[in-house]
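User: Hey, quick favor. My workstation is busy. Could you predict this chain's structure for me?
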Amino acid sequence: MKKRLLVAFLLLLPVATLKAGEPKPLELRRIQVVPIQDSSNDREYELLIKLPESYDKSGSKKHPVIYYTDAMWAVEMLSATAEYAIEDAILVGISWQKNLAKAKNAWSSRFRDFKPALAEDNKAGKGEAHKHLAFIRNDVIKHIESNYRANPHNRTYFGYSLGGLFGVYTLFSQPDTFQNYILGSPSRSLGSFISAQFESDSHKALIDLPKQANVFISYGALEKELGSNVERLVSQLKRRKLSNLSLESVVIESADHTTAFPKTSVRSIYWLADRLKP
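Assistant: No problem, here it is.
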């Protein structure tokens, strides 16, 4: 009898073990998901906010903040890198629009939000980077600086691909939004954008930059067309000898548009760590 019960128990053991080990979603440590509304448009987003481990013990200290787009793609890489390189930073990831009707993908809104309006675009496909920048300035940054001990004089932007292009647009149109800009492989549309800026002198806000801005811009060595446009942008900026603009241009070795992302993330965050040292 005991032998039969033992055999039955052993047969049921894998089933019991499987039930105990059922998969569950991973929640990243110390990351809060906060819904936020674009106050000028009927658009809903989420912020992925990670406070530094020392936040509760840091008294009245104001912390530097790293704002980044494409939050769901970048959160793990930036969170892990900043954990080692910049221990006191607040990380704020900005999601794609959550209530976008008939969206083909979860990330569909990035093609509208990150892209500046260019003359070459058809009317239906024009970018709305100006609206998204207003949302970040008026709603996202205001929320963070009203609810957390965030240093308003120490903001960083991180964007890759179209997010990098959005960062270039921000730097040219309202450069005081951030003090540090990390612009990784900023999209094939970069060439058209910088041509429009320099041909029409639309970069006056950048020329009149009242305070220091630090820029890290990169591309993969295998991104030939994009690399040419980045080099053109860097050359144009250096030619103007802007006293308040510090520029670091980096080529990611043996990398294309996809594989350049992780190396860009790590190198740029360590570049930022050097900028943030007292």
